[in-house]
Specification:
Helix content is 33%, strand content 14%. It has 8 helices and 7 strands, in the order H-E-E-H-E-E-H-H-H-H-H-E-E-E-H. The chain has helices at 6-12, 47-59, 93-102, 106-116, 118-127, 159-170, 177-184, 240-260, and strands at residues 19-24, 31-34, 68-70, 90-92, 202-209, 214-221, 227-234. The strands form 2 sheets. Strands 2-1-7-6-5 form a 5-stranded antiparallel sheet, sandwiched between helices. A hairpin with a 5-residue loop joins strand 6 (214-221) and strand 7 (227-234).
Length: 283
């Protein structure tokens, strides 16, 4: 089987020194990675393990999806999408989690930091086997940063742990996995890797953006029924131009995924074929 040169794909599509993980959810051991281990700020990707911390707390009986919460004014910050999650708003844990994953709502995220407790949430996620993931600071949608007296540094959720966590969510190895998949399948931000999907493909995913990083990761189901985890972390600033680069990367990767799946090779080149050129590529 011809293995994709992920570094070449990233270079040709302008993603730069990206960290990329591709893992089959059907064929054990079929996985490709490009990761130098350097720290890359996760931005809103941190919301995925925080959602898992919510489901752990529910499974332990400390919370319920319908637990009532009133939004604290201290958690207010800028959001990229319209949201009712504002100071004084009466909501539930389910609504906070949904808005956090679906719309990437920063206020909902900050409120869940308070509901869960960041130290307890970190311990719960690390106990699941993700020792490098930590919740250290509430999120800010813009400068100046939100006042957070309990901050202990920058949040951490490395790309390789993101790949393993999405695989665990896909395989129901964490509490509430089906609910999390359902929410992420309704993402409002299908602007990166989703732009490279083909007819019949679906992607339950989460994006992360700041002025310094742009990421996309999730559970990809192709029209041929093969299922994959795909994680792409970059140190590109958030922009429409860079979003298009993610779509180009997905279009160039898909033939390799089809070729690796015996159920349907219609979407891919013959094994050993050269890297397909994408018409948008700057390489």
């Amino acid at each position: 089987m011809h293995q994709p040169d992920l570094a070449a794909l990233a270079e040709q599509t302008g993603l730069g020194a990206a960290q990329v993980h591709v893992q089959s959810l059907v064929s054990a051991g079929l996985a490709w990675s490009l990761d130098d281990g350097r720290f890359i700020y996760p931005a809103s990707m941190i919301k995925v393990p925080l959602a898992v911390a919510v489901t752990v707390a529910i499974a332990a009986g400390r919370l319920d999806w319908e637990t009532r919460v009133v939004v604290d004014p201290r958690n207010a910050t800028v959001n990229d999408a319209p949201s009712p999650i504002e100071p004084g708003y009466a909501t539930t844990v389910l609504e906070l989690t949904t808005f956090m994953l679906q719309r990437s709502d920063n206020v909902a995220t900050n409120q869940l930091y308070d509901v869960l407790g960041r130290e307890r949430a970190t311990a719960d996620v690390q106990a699941l086997g993700f020792p490098e993931t930590s919740f250290r600071r509430k999120l800010s949608g813009d400068l100046p940063l939100i006042d957070d007296p309990e901050a202990t540094g920058r949040n951490a959720f490395p790309a390789h742990e993101a790949a393993r966590l999405f695989a665990a969510i896909a395989a129901d190895r964490v509490p509430g996995a089906a609910a999390l998949r359902e929410i992420m399948a309704t993402s409002w931000w299908d602007v990166k890797l989703s732009r490279g999907l083909g007819t019949g493909d679906s992607f339950a995913h989460k994006t992360g953006d700041t002025d310094e990083v742009a990421h996309d990761a999730g559970i990809l189901t192709l029209a041929d029924s093969s299922r994959w985890v795909l994680v792409v972390y970059t140190e590109l600033p958030s922009s429409e131009e860079n979003d298009l680069r993610f779509g180009a990367f997905m279009r160039m990767l898909r033939p390799y995924l089809h070729a690796a799946w015996p159920g349907d090779a219609a979407g891919g080149p013959a094994n050993g074929a050269p890297i397909p050129r994408d018409p948008w590529s700057t390489g």
